[in-house]
């Protein structure tokens, strides 16, 4: 059953909305950090297809294991209505597609929409009259209407139904129509407190009626509630500014940390004092990587520049955060030299390689840039991360030396780069035992008291 009536008047027909909602046959495209929790959540309530091209990923999910650590084996086995597959023929009988694929940037720091385009092209071959396509991937404002909808239109021959576009912009009609929606993902990898169901979900649709249907769909799995944006473009903009704001705040804090270091005072003592004022928002300094905060601002600045506006603050914050690994490498080398350590003959243990604590994701982790900077000075680096298995590390295994267990009394310096709970539980005294008697300890994430280390950011 497709959507027969999408008029504004239809939103007052609760019986009709209920019937459309009940007959939605959902497919989630992409089973990473975003798509898998969605599939599992819907799979507890309704029939859902979880689709991913990666056959290894499908095998592990079918076996009840999630290598990202976002979903437990118990929850995977409990979503009895979910089917995981890499066979696209399973998508043929679906009428509601949710796209949750990565949207990275190119080496020139421009949006890379290739995964999104390929997912859209796949859906376009199955699209039928009345079907709905919802995007969750981070994009710049306008991508759904201006990039994705035309692809769906071209491949399906159906008209894109949208209240926000003039009639002559709704694309060609060949006997049917489709609808789009945008509901930006808000998954925080490794966070066991702010889960999918616990975070308010922004929703939107290409027509008033479809926005109601989409909102109803997400309310089924999000107990925290939903927020209906007035348009798809507003929802897209809301998503991209969330992480841009966080990026800027961390950039400010990183700059404060550099200034505090030059003043010879502890950054966190300053932040704690300032945080006693009711309207001061506390952020902590550190390396900013990953596939969200270090990427999303470039989507917004790309669109701004396309429209003839040259953003200043956003790019300045990005540049500062990107340079933090250079600053830290310089600081580490300087302190080691002051301790009469011969840099070119030194061995350093780097604890943590992921882009954030308590998750196995190494994508765009700035720890590797820090390692590269240190290695360029002749330092021998070993990396220890309990979340990253040396044999399964996706990267340059010849370039980076991962170890399963650090050696005791072996290193001239130890760099705590990621504040994994395992490192915190290990304790600073146990960590110090990895170093030689004169070893320097660097705590980039300020996981331990300032007086227990030689430097913390």
Task: Explain the layout of strands and helices.
Elements: H1 14-22, E1 26-29, H2 35-43, E2 48-51, H3 55-62, H4 73-78, E3 82-85, E4 96-99, H5 114-124, E5 132-135, H6 143-156, E6 159-160, E7 177-182, E8 201-203, H7 208-219, E9 226-228, H8 232-263, H9 267-274, H10 296-306, H11 313-338, E10 347-351, H12 367-375, E11 380-384, E12 402-403, E13 411-416, H13 421-426, H14 428-432, E14 435-443, E15 455-456
Parallel strand pairs: 1-2, 1-4, 2-3, 4-5, 5-7, 6-7, 8-9, 10-11, 10-13, 11-12, 13-14, 14-15
Summarize the structure.
The chain is α/β, with parallel strands linked by helices and about 450 residues long.
Taking the sheet with the most strands, its summary is: 7 strands, parallel
**CATH architecture assignment name of the largest domain:** 3-Layer(aba) Sandwich
Question: Roughly what is the average pLDDT, rounded to an integer?
Answer: 93
**Text of the CATH class of the largest domain:** Alpha Beta
Structural class: alpha/beta
Tally of structural domains: 2
Determine the strand fraction and express it as a percent band: 5-15%
Instruction: Supply the CATH superfamily name of the largest domain.
Output: NAD(P)-binding Rossmann-like Domain
Order of helices and strands: HEHEHHEEHEHEEEHEHHHHEHEEEHHEE
Give the CATH topology of the largest domain: Rossmann fold
Helical amount = 25-40%
How many distinct helices?
A: 14
Rg computed from alpha carbons, rounded to a whole number of angstroms: 24 Å
In one word, what is the shape?
A: elongated
Task: Give me the count of strands.
Answer: 15
End-to-end gap: 58 Å
- Stretches where pLDDT is under 50 for at least 5 consecutive residues are none
Widest sheet, order of strands: 3-2-1-4-5-7-6
């Amino acid at each position: 059953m497709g959507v027969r009536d999408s008029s504004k008047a239809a939103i007052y027909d609760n019986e009709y909305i209920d019937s459309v909602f009940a007959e939605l046959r959902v497919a989630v495209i992409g089973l990473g950090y975003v798509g898998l929790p969605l599939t599992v959540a819907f799979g507890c309530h309704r029939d859902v297809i979880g689709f991913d091209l990666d056959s290894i990923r499908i095998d592990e999910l079918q076996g009840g294991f999630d290598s990202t650590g976002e979903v437990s084996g118990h929850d995977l086995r409990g979503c009895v209505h979910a089917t995981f597959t890499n066979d696209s023929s399973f998508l043929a009988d679906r009428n509601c597609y949710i796209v949750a694929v990565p949207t990275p940037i190119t080496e020139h720091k421009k949006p890379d929409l290739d995964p999104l385009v390929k997912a859209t092209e796949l859906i376009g071959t199955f699209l039928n009259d009345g079907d709905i396509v919802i995007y969750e991937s981070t994009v710049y404002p306008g991508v759904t209407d201006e990039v994705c909808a035309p692809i769906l239109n071209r491949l399906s021959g159906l008209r894109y139904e949208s209240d926000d576009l003039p009639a002559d912009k709704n694309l060609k009609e060949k006997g049917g129509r489709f609808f789009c929606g945008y509901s930006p993902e808000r998954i925080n990898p490794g966070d066991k407190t702010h889960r999918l169901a616990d975070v308010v979900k922004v929703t939107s649709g290409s027509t008033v009626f479809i926005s109601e249907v989409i909102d109803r769909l997400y309310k089924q799995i999000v107990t925290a509630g939903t927020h209906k944006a007035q348009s798809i473009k507003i929802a897209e903009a809301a998503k991209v500014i969330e992480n841009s704001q966080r990026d800027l705040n961390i950039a400010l804090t990183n700059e404060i940390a550099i200034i505090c270091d030059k003043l010879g005072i502890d950054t966190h003592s300053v932040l704690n004092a300032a945080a006693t004022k009711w309207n001061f928002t506390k952020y902590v300094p550190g390396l900013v990587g990953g596939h969200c905060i270090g990427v999303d601002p470039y989507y917004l600045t790309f669109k701004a520049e396309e429209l003839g506006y040259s953003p200043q603050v956003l790019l300045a914050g990005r540049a500062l955060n990107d340079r933090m690994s250079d600053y830290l490498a310089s600081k580490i080398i300087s302190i080691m030299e002051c301790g009469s350590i011969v840099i070119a003959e030194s061995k350093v243990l780097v604890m943590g390689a992921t882009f954030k604590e308590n998750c196995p994701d190494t994508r765009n982790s700035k720890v590797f840039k820090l390692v590269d900077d240190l290695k360029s000075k002749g330092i021998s680096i070993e990396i220890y991360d309990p979340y990253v298995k040396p044999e399964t590390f996706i990267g340059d295994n010849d370039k980076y030396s991962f170890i399963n267990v650090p050696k005791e009394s072996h290193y001239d310096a130890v760099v705590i780069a990621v504040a994994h709970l395992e490192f915190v539980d290990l304790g600073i005294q146990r960590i110090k035992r990895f170093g030689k008697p004169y070893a320097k300890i660097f705590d980039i994430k300020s996981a331990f008291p300032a007086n227990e280390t030689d430097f913390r950011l």
